[in-house]
Amino acid sequence: MTLSLLEALNFLHLNKWIHGDIKPMNIGVRKWDSDQASIVLLDTEDAIQAPRGFVSVTPGTTGTVGWLSPEREMGQFTATTDVWAVGVAAIWMLLGRHPWQHRDNPWRDGERYEIKRPFFHVQYDAARENIVNCEDKSLGIAILQMIRHPYARMEDQRKARPTCREVIQMLRAGSATGGSGVSGQKRAREHAT
What we know:
Layout: H1 2-14, E1 17-18, E2 27-31, E3 37-41, E4 48-49, E5 54-56, E6 76-78, H2 80-95, H3 111-114, H4 117-132, H5 137-146, H6 164-176, H7 183-192
Antiparallel strand pairs: 1-4, 2-3, 5-6
GO cellular component, one term: cytoplasm
EC number: 2.7.11.1
Pfam family, one: Pkinase
């Protein structure tokens, strides 16, 4: 599922659009026949056109708290904001729960939001540890790269977030080598990829 979602988003991104509100409720499945189905992106009426590849923020106008990348409300953002949301959705599928949930985005400007950032970091680090210990190492590595952000406490998580195309290549390379997922993780991976 993650791979199909990334492929749909890659199409949007290649056409200079950012979905901006990727979350499970905005992901549909179109069943073509008994053996074939495809991902359908829902709630596209608020998609953001990004002809220059980036968009200046307008805090609180689009997206859903808990699925927004940190940079979504600070400065400018690119199509990799959708990659972040796919990473959060993949964690949700693997863990069976949202890795963090807030009423307010802790990355908005203002002291009211800044005081919430340490709590976000604790939840982020806990989710990261769960993914590091994922039995399917290639999937875990891809997810960790999808949730990179510029305000992370760990240096490797502050690196640039990959594009949809780059994550697709990582996941396909992991599938080609067979990954290392087994037992209970195998079922989770089937749902996540």
